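Throughout this review, each integer encodes one residue's backbone shape. One record appears below.

===
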Amino acid sequence: MNLLQRYLIGRRARRDALAGIYQPEERIVAVLGRRPKFDAIGNVRHARMQQEMNMFPEMNELQGDVYNLQTQATRNTAPRVVLLLLLAFFAIETAAATGLMAELNIDTPERLLWGAMLAVLLVYLTYEAVRLHRSKWLYVVGPGLGILFVAMATARLEFFSDDGDDLASNWPAAIIMLGVTIGIPFAFEHFLKQYAEAIQIPKRMRVIRRRFRQMARKQRDAQRGVDHFERRGERWDDAAAQATAIYKVHHAFTRNSQATNSEPSEEDTDHVRN
């Protein structure tokens, strides 16, 4: 309590004593104000603080998501390894397509370009065929990709077979060439999907951890606000106790003084007896 509040409490206590009333609670509230309290029902700001303090289920859920992502990251292949595999498969497919272009008697500068374009086309069509496995466009992409695979396998078989061999009689080699032609693009698409999932896990973990830090910061701020209200209430209780003591002292002193002044003196008593 400051000096002004002490003065006001004493003044009102003396007035109450002269008026013959005793109301310390009302006078203390009039001088100090009402006791600060945390009201999560009637105050919107306090209700928001209460909600921010009770975010433990959401925070636990975020921690569970982080644990699941970490488990998934440990089970998956490392992104760098997957990227190296992708580069290796693409290099193999490009080299095979370049050799096929050489069989088609395309010169060296152009065969590299056409070989890379053919490798990209195979990978792209394979990716679209896998992505559109439940779409009607699969009936457009799938047959085209199959024809391209068969054509490349036939051309590679002719390149590696002797001139006198019959392609129809050499069916095991044809199946092997077809499997190799189909396998590399599908393997590339498989590892590409793994790489996309692997690089998304750290991003999702950063987003979840950022959200967790934001929620934890809001929770700390809300707790500080509640603690601030509690400290204000404790200070108000201390000030109210002091004000009550001051009120009682001034009230009692004024009442005693009033009683003393109202008693007749000895001369007045002797005069009345005579």
